[in-house]
């Protein structure tokens, strides 16, 4: 208990967070917005600490907020304490991720190969922990998360599901159009979003929300032409089989072209298609230490460009 009751001061962690945030923002409104509290709560916390310490921590007017010399020193001291606290918690969490802790991560196709740097960093940071990849289908991107069969999915954005948490972006890349080898587009070398209106694309069915499918396979071209859908397919390999047979074309992430060379299929770059971002996604009620550890590792590593 030594040090926790110095001068009889009982400082709540929330008050420390408010002080440090205000010391960074130097604005009561922005501080309140970041911490999701009212500006009055921020003012109350600061005034309470100033009364306890008997000294002003901030000089403030109606237009300006700045730290006093005492406030600057307190910010430095408290930030060091918070950093030590967070480091201690991180070490404790790492110790809890011992041998046998394995995260089940769902990916599309061969994306697991591209994610090797993330897996290697996770294993190095948390010895004994591991990642096991499984395949996710565009026709049903969320069910395995909701049932608990998978811990995390790597999904293209946006994901706007109220029960799911979207974590850091782990992959970025372009799009390719899969066409049959004897398709008129095959010899052109590239494809555009407008080309989709002259062909059919795969119908992924009702298991995936329309907003999410449309971010990969739009319903209309930039000029407003409708993009026909059908035949139906459920898996990545079913899509490639339909494409090879000449029944349709289909846009995919460009990782598909890197790790696949199926007979009868050509992958054409789509330079006019917006870049894709893929993020870690998990069930909000299953936000355990291992998931948080993988997300933090991904955030520290940054997105991998495909």
Automatic annotation (TrEMBL):
<protein>
    <submittedName>
        <fullName>LysR family transcriptional regulator</fullName>
    </submittedName>
</protein>
<dbReference type="InterPro" id="IPR036388">
    <property type="entry name" value="WH-like_DNA-bd_sf"/>
</dbReference>
<feature type="domain" description="HTH lysR-type">
    <location>
        <begin position="11"/>
        <end position="68"/>
    </location>
</feature>
<keyword id="KW-0805">Transcription regulation</keyword>
<comment type="similarity">
    <text>Belongs to the LysR transcriptional regulatory family.</text>
</comment>
<dbReference type="InterPro" id="IPR036390">
    <property type="entry name" value="WH_DNA-bd_sf"/>
</dbReference>
<keyword id="KW-0238">DNA-binding</keyword>
<dbReference type="InterPro" id="IPR000847">
    <property type="entry name" value="LysR_HTH_N"/>
</dbReference>
<dbReference type="Pfam" id="PF03466">
    <property type="entry name" value="LysR_substrate"/>
</dbReference>
<dbReference type="InterPro" id="IPR005119">
    <property type="entry name" value="LysR_subst-bd"/>
</dbReference>
<keyword id="KW-0804">Transcription</keyword>
<dbReference type="Pfam" id="PF00126">
    <property type="entry name" value="HTH_1"/>
</dbReference>
């Amino acid at each position: 208990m030594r040090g926790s009751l110095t001068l009889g001061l009982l400082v709540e962690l929330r008050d420390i967070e408010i002080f440090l945030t205000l010391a960074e923002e130097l604005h009561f409104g922005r501080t309140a917005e970041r911490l999701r509290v009212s500006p009055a709560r921020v003012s109350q916390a600061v005034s309470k600490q100033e009364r306890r310490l008997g000294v002003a921590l901030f000089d403030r007017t109606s237009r300006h907020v700045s730290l006093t010399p005492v406030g600057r020193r307190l910010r430095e001291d408290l930030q060091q304490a918070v950093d030590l606290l967070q480091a201690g918690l991180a070490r404790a969490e790492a110790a809890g991720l011992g041998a046998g802790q394995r995260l089940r991560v769902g990916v599309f196709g061969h994306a697991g190969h591209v994610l090797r740097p993330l897996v290697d960093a996770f294993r190095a940071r948390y010895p004994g922990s591991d990642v096991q990849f499984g395949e996710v289908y565009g026709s049903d991107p969320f069910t395995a998360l909701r049932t608990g069969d998978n811990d995390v999915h790597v999904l293209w954005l946006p994901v706007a599901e109220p029960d799911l948490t979207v974590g850091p972006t782990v992959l970025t890349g372009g799009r390719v159009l899969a066409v049959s080898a004897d398709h008129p587009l095959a010899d052109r070398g590239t494809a555009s979003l407008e080309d989709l209106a002259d062909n059919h694309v795969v119908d992924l069915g009702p298991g995936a929300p329309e907003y999410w499918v449309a971010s990969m396979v739009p319903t209309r071209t930039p000029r407003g032409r409708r993009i026909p859908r059908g035949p139906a397919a459920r898996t990545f390999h079913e899509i490639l089989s339909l494409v090879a047979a000449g029944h349709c074309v289909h846009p995919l992430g460009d990782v598909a072209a890197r790790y696949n060379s199926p007979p009868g299929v050509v992958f054409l770059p789509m330079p006019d298609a917006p870049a894709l971002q893929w993020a870690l996604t998990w069930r909000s009620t299953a936000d355990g230490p291992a998931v948080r550890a993988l997300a933090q590792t991904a955030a520290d590593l940054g997105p991998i460009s495909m």
